[in-house]
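Example record

The entry below shows one chain as it appears in the dataset: sequence first, then structure tokens.
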Amino acid sequence: MKSNKKKSNKKKSHIPFRLNLLFFTVFLLFSALILRLGYLQIVQGEDFETQVQRTETTLATGTVPRGEIYDSQYRKLVGNNPLQAITYTRGKGISAKDMATLALKLSKYIEMPHITQLETDEKFDLSKRDLIDFWIALNEEKLNKRLSKKELALTDTKFYETQVSYVTDEDIQLTSEEQAAAAIFKRMNGAYALSTINIKSENVTDEEVAKVSENLLSLPGIDTSTDWVRTYPQGNTLESILGKVTTESKGLPENKVATYLAKGYSRNDRVGDSNLELQYEQVLSGSKSKSATETNQNGDIVNSVQSYIGKKGDNLVLTIDMNFQKIVEDIAYKSLAQKRQGLNDRVYVIASDPNTGEIMAMTGQKVNPKTGKIEDDALSAINTAYVMGSTVKPATLLAGYMDGVITLNDNTLVDEPLKFGEQSTNTISSVFNRRGSVALNDITALERSSNVYMSKLAMRMGGQYSYTPGGNLKIDGDEVIKKLRGYYGQFGLG
């Protein structure tokens, strides 16, 4: 009996010891936890609070008005019409859902054109894909439940295209307010991190500006500003020469994106797209405004301070006189309208100051073969190649003077049919004199548009002063052409 009692006592004595050990271990762990929490809160509390409140400041740029274009008398040819604008600056790390939610808020304060492709196939503001993109941004979690595990494992473009394929026509039956928000979202989605774009810059009312301004605190990234649109006070005059600028939605031309980005442009910047607007882009574009933009840990913009107001683009003054330009255009138009026949379907005129070479007027008129109407084609006056014909004869005459082959006292040459080589069947002659011989001086040669006079000037420039019917042409043709090109180049005809 005694031995059994001793055994049971020994067994019972282990239980209190283990409990005490367990309690002691728990006590140590809690003590360590309390010490650690105390260390984090008391010693490192300020550091953690600083990290939570930490913001990042980066430089954001804004657009400035483009330089204007004037004629020689400072009449405005291309100007800027100032507009009120609602803008959006995209913060870092902003998701599509963030923007879609913001778009819904903003749609309560501004009107946005939102005709959809579901309503009409022509002139719509929102394509079916635009509606799908907006719906996905708001309902991605709901949409992903429709995908298989294999499809959920896809990445990037393939994953998104798969998501798109699961959106039904019923999903994109949006309300009018949601469609307006989709139009806003479409504009927002074109912005890059810390770049500013116009959400709306046409027909912005004072009421819309006031409503947005009152609610800026609940609209992160949204602001009110001013914008510009190109105007043409002289109508279509010189339109093809002046050129155009890209739209904000088009942004930088695809073939020059890298070049413009290296110069500090943003992808959605409006730049010269053709002719003078393109040629003088660096002059007309100006210097962008600069703002120090502060973003929080979530990428939201919490503050923005403008450090540089920017500088409007420089103006461009042309040598063209608009009043004279209109007179020349009228003459060209009437000439073509009254004398149109056969292949005579276009006329081009360039008037320059003979003392300086400045272009005073430039016009081109062309018959549209489909409509039969005469249209402006001024650009072809400099961009299209044509055989110069008799218009080059005055320059040829001056080339003869500059080369010394004729003088003011010795400039009479005989106009007669020219034939080189006994076996040749080709003859050079003037329209007014196909068979005879007529002595001409410089003035009468121009008056009668003598082909032979100009040919003999070229012969003299090559060293051949005499002509024998059927004889050989004894000049270096390449050398003579080189000379003529040099002289023609001095008149802009090279």
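Notes for this example: The chain has a mean pLDDT of 87. The longest strand covers residues 76-89.
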